[in-house]
Amino acid sequence: MDGPAPGGDAYAAGFVTDRPDHTQLGDLLELEVGPVAAGGGCVARAPDGRVVFVRHALPGERVRALVTDATASFLRADAVTVLQGSPDRVEPPCPHAGPGRCGGCDYQHVSGSAQRRLKAFRVAEQLSRLAGVTWSAEVEAVPGDTEGLAWRSRVRLAVDRDGRTGFRRHRSHRVEPVDACPVAAPAVAATGVIGARWPGAAEIEVATGMGTGGAVVSVRPRGRGRLEMPEVGARTGLVVGGTVCRPPGSVDALVRGRVYRVSAGVFWQVHLGAAAALLDAVLALAEPATGDDVADLYAGAGLFAVPLAEAVGTTGSVLAVERDRRACADARHNGKGLRALRVLEISVTPELVTRGIGRPRLLVLDPARQGAGTAVMRALAAHAPTLDRLVYVSCDPASFGRDARVLLDAGWELAVLRAFDIFPMTEHVELVALLRPPR
Ligand SMILES: C[S@@+](CC[C@H](N)C(=O)[O-])C[C@H]1O[C@@H](n2cnc3c(N)ncnc32)[C@H](O)[C@@H]1O
Fold first, then answer.
1. Which residues are designated catalytic?
2. Atom nearest to 301 CA in ligand 1
3. Ligand 1 center to residue 389 CA distance, Å?
4. 257 Cβ partners below 8 Å, 6+ apart?
5. Region for 415 from its dihedrals, namely left if φ exceeds 0, alpha if ψ lies in -120 to 50, beta otherwise
6. Model confidence over 330-376: pLDDT tens digits?
């Protein structure tokens, strides 16, 4: 065991008889499963009236579920027996998926098309609730996706006290040891990291090149103890505690004919097809033209900023704003020779947006999961008189809904919203939106 599960461990507690009057951890409940909910599960109602968030289930199913967490207002449970299954249910392709097992995936038991329907339902629900927007469209599969498997170009592994690699169980510190992961790309498996023994390591991140080969393995040691490392594949760099011990300390990603350098620890899209799909979507909505002034906020290694700088030519400008030093260095490297590109290493704040990004005609925004926040969005809204369009890329429909609401309340229009399934087998979904200021 690698630490206690939050709220206790129903699997350790074992199964006890159903007590409908006062449900508690470890109880088994028979549930009619309702709509999909946040957290990778669905909503049901316990006999005592509390809401139950039930994982490993599907809307419309009847299941027997083990209560894994009990609070005064709601319960969490795992469907352990399917009494009446959904037509969308499939046999999980991964042997480590299932109740009490690996927490890396949410939807291994759901067909690919049904996964995208569940995500579309969630996006529509959150946009309606948080932004007052009616949206009904499809979540698009990433071109080249192979049934939601073999897509992860980057994998973060936990390491247990015996040095075994694995993934954390859902809402738990415990590690499910694995020696293969079917959602990882073949290049990840080729490093030999998964399934090898890593005594003294706490966490390992494997980042592989996209279309160019090569990989970097970043190891976070466990305390000050002795770290033993197995052989990793040829052309695989090794970074320990942030220091490059064996080059390369970066990978190359080939996207639409351009090679991007991405250093260890720098953000990059995980799905093998995501960078190209999102770049295409952003460029199609942004419609950059020669001479445009552009700001790309939360720019990372320059996935969008670099092609935008090429598109605006020598008479335009692209300001890429990013707070991570290594990401800025990568963005400058990736945009070498493009006179329009300027990379600013600084945090995006309301003050910066008000006074430090000039008066762009086009804004691209791709914040982290928590979104840009109300204050930054208000500052962006004030650019309306000189701005033509804003393209917002988001990996969280809830924070996008809250951020978009700020612009919509100021009279902006949500002109286009696309959703992409760049995280198959999980509940996550990516949005690309075009917002236009009032005229
Ligand atoms: C979702 S990533 C997007 C990167 C890039 N657009 C891409 O697709 O590769 C978000 C980036 O924002 C950066 N970031 C997060 N918070 C920030 C802030 N307050 N100011 C500036 N950059 C920030 C992170 O370091 C990360 O590189």
1. 395
2. 9
3. 20
4. none
5. alpha
6. 999 999 999 999 999 999 999 999 999 999 999 999 999 999 999 99
